Amino acid sequence: MVSAVAAPQTDPVRLETARAVAAAVRDPEVPVLTIDDLGVLRGVQLIEGTVVVTITPTYSGCPAMGAIRDDLVLALTSEGFSDVRVVTVLAPAWTTDWMSAQGREALAAYGIAPPTGRAPAGAVRVRLAVRCPRCGGLDTREVSRFGSTSCKALYECRGCLEPFDHFKAH
C-alpha cells in the first residue's frame, strides 16, 4: 500500500547537514541574524530525496521572505542538495519568543534594541521602557511605530540623542 503523504526519510547525517545549511542563512534585512536565530526557520525534512524547509514570516506581509526563500535554495543546492522546496506557513504566527538568546545579543550589538520579555498573551499591553542599545539608557521614546522595516519601531534615546530601531515584541 502506498501512502498519499510521503514520510520523512531517516538519513540523519544528510538531514543534519541540510538543517545546518538552512540554519546558517542570514536574514536579508538584519544580516547579523540567521533565520534560525530569528526563529523564522521552523523545520527541515528530507522527503523522497527533496529537502523541504518550512519557514514562518515575522509578519504575513514580510517582503524579505522571497529573498530568504532564494537564499535557502541557493545555499542548499550549493551544498549538493539538488531538489529543494521552501514552504511558508503562517500558523502558528511568528512570535519574538522564538528568537534565540544569541539573536537578541546580536541585535543589541548591531544597534537594534531586541524585544524584551514575552509576547503579550492577552488584550492588555503594558509598554515597558526600551533600553538604548548604544548607551544603555532607559530614557527613550518611540518616534515612529515603524522603523527601517515593519517589524521594528523607531526610537530615540534622550540620553545620547541617538535614534535606533527596536524589534517589536509580538
Describe this protein's structure.
The protein has 170 residues and is α/β, with parallel strands linked by helices. It folds into two domains: 77 residues, Fe-S cluster assembly (FSCA) (GMP Synthetase, Chain A, domain 3, 2-Layer Sandwich); 70 residues, no CATH class. It contains four helices and seven strands. It has a four-stranded mixed β-sheet. Strands 1-2-3 form a three-stranded mixed β-sheet. Helix 3 links the parallel strand 2 and strand 3. The longest helix is centred in the middle third of the chain and has 14 residues. It is elongated. 29% of the residues are buried.
Keywords:
single chain, 170 residues, alpha/beta, GMP Synthetase, Chain A, domain 3, four-stranded mixed beta sheet, three-stranded mixed beta sheet, 24% helix
In short:
The chain has 170 residues and is an alpha/beta fold.
Write the layout of secondary structure elements.
Blueprint: H1 12-23, H2 35-38, E1 41-47, E2 50-55, H3 65-78, E3 84-88, H4 101-110, E4 112-113, E5 140-144, E6 152-157, E7 163-167
Parallel strand pairs: 2-3, 4-7
Antiparallel strand pairs: 1-2, 5-6, 6-7
Q: Major beta sheet, specifics?
A: 4 strands, mixed
CATH class term of the largest domain:
Alpha Beta
CATH superfamily of the largest domain: Fe-S cluster assembly (FSCA)
Residue fraction in strands: 15-25%
CATH topology of the largest domain: GMP Synthetase, Chain A, domain 3
Strand order of the largest sheet: 4-7-6-5
- The number of helical runs is 4
Q: Approximately how much helix is present in the residues?
A: 10-25%
Low-confidence stretches: none
Q: Architecture of the largest domain, CATH level 2?
A: 2-Layer Sandwich
Q: Order of helices and strands, N to C?
A: HHEEHEHEEEE
Structural class comes to: alpha/beta
| Mean pLDDT across every amino acid position | 87
Measure the end-to-end span.
45 Å
* Count of β-strands: 7
* Integer count of domains: 2
**Broad shape:** elongated
